[in-house]
Amino acid sequence: MFTSTGSSGLYKAPLSKGLLIVPSTLSLLLALLFQHYQKFFTYNLQAVKEEFQIWRLVCGRAVCLDLKDTFCSSLLIYNFRIFERRYGSRKFSSFLLGSWMLSVLFDLLLVEAVEYSFGVSINSLPSGFLGPIFALFIPFYCSIPRVQVTQILGQFSITNKTLVYILGLQLLTSGSYIWIVALSGLISGMCYSSHVLKVYRVLCVPSGMARIFAWTLEPIFSSAEPSNEIRVGMGATVDIQRQQRIELLDRQILMSQFAQIRRQRQQQQGGMINWNRLFPPLRRQRNANYQDNRQTEHEVLPPAEVSEEQVARLMEMGFSRIDALEALRASNNDLNVATNFLLQH
Questions:
Q1: DSSP characters for 91-159?
Q2: Helix, strand, or coil here: 218?
Q3: What does the alpha-carbon distance between residue 215 and residue 313 come to, in Å, rounded to a whole number?
Q4: Angle, helices 308-316/335-344, rounded to nearest 10 degrees
Q5: What is the DSSP letter of 200?
Q6: Contact by Cβ (8 Å): 175, 66
Q7: Do 192 and 136 contact (CB within 8 A), yes or no?
Q8: Are the C-beta atoms of residues 144 and 250 closer than 8 Å to each other?
Q9: What is the DSSP-derived secondary structure letter of residue 247?
Q10: Most-buried pick from 25, 52, 187, 230 (CB within 10 A)?
Q11: Predicted confidence (pLDDT) per residue in 133-181, tens digit
Q12: Pairwise CA distance, residues 54 & 329, whole Å
């Protein structure tokens, strides 16, 4: 799937592109040329517990040693790239890092639970970046709209999410104990996404590290913006065109959700909000009276303090720093209101 659409399908998703290229290349090299090095990438829990080889928790959970797992996980990463486009690379990488670290804990707990309950000793688990991939099914289920594509026998609906679930089931049945990795990934995804536990505030990529990666790695894995012909659905096959229409529909549904949130917020505040009055400087109007109006409005409304973290989150979505600052100031530092306006204007 991802090879058919080319690099344009990974526009604004450099981290997803890196996860497709680097682990897949290493997996192929270990399977074809350097088989004697595979022992260093096995997810051996017995060696971790008895010999304290903690490095296996990193190496054993980075590269798939089974090529079928590599193929299925690559397809899933390509489909989950929508989260990097929607939330930005830093938030997406924070989710992957947090779920990856949490899944280590749940792997060990589940293995101990199985051994205590059923007396089955599990020495090793399937290798690879599988925990975060299964964790991504949680936001995929909760936030991606379900759009019907066709029906089979007039009863069974085929949606834009069916293929992703089939790939997940295929990956789930590839090994004897991969269900432990899948379950720990799903639990870690729920824990990280929970607004009650607020794990995302602790397990996140620091802003300084995110800037370093943006300067060094992002130019290497960034993809060119697709042409207009590709964006409107001029794919080489019917499947590619259908996927592009689904992605376009998903973006339209997301925009409508933002509009609905905006209307609800306006009703809660007791009436319609005059956005042109609240956000006068955001969209430049090239006329002679603009500078005078802007100066007058700044004299009437003193600027409010703006959180740099929220400015950074808006900039990760693709907005300029000037628009982010002015939107947050005019909305009294309300990130949701500022995002709604910037997305719709």
A1: HHHHHHHHHHHHHHHHHHHHHHHHHHHH-----EE--SSHHHHHHTHHHHHHHS---EEEEETTTEEEE
A2: helix
A3: 17
A4: 30
A5: G
A6: yes
A7: no
A8: yes
A9: H
A10: 187
A11: 999 999 999 988 787 777 777 677 888 899 999 999 999 998 889 999 9
A12: 47
Unique residue bearing structure tokens 């207009």 = 228
| pTM greater than 0.85 | no
Which DSSP state fits 318? T
Handedness of CA 243, 249, 254, 255 (dihedral sign): positive
Instruction: Give CB contacts under 8 A, 24+ apart, made by 141-148.
Output: 142/193, 144/82, 144/250, 145/249, 145/250, 145/253, 145/254, 147/246, 147/249, 147/250, 147/253
- Tokens describing residue 27: 């997996």
pLDDT at residue 240 greater than cutoff 60: no
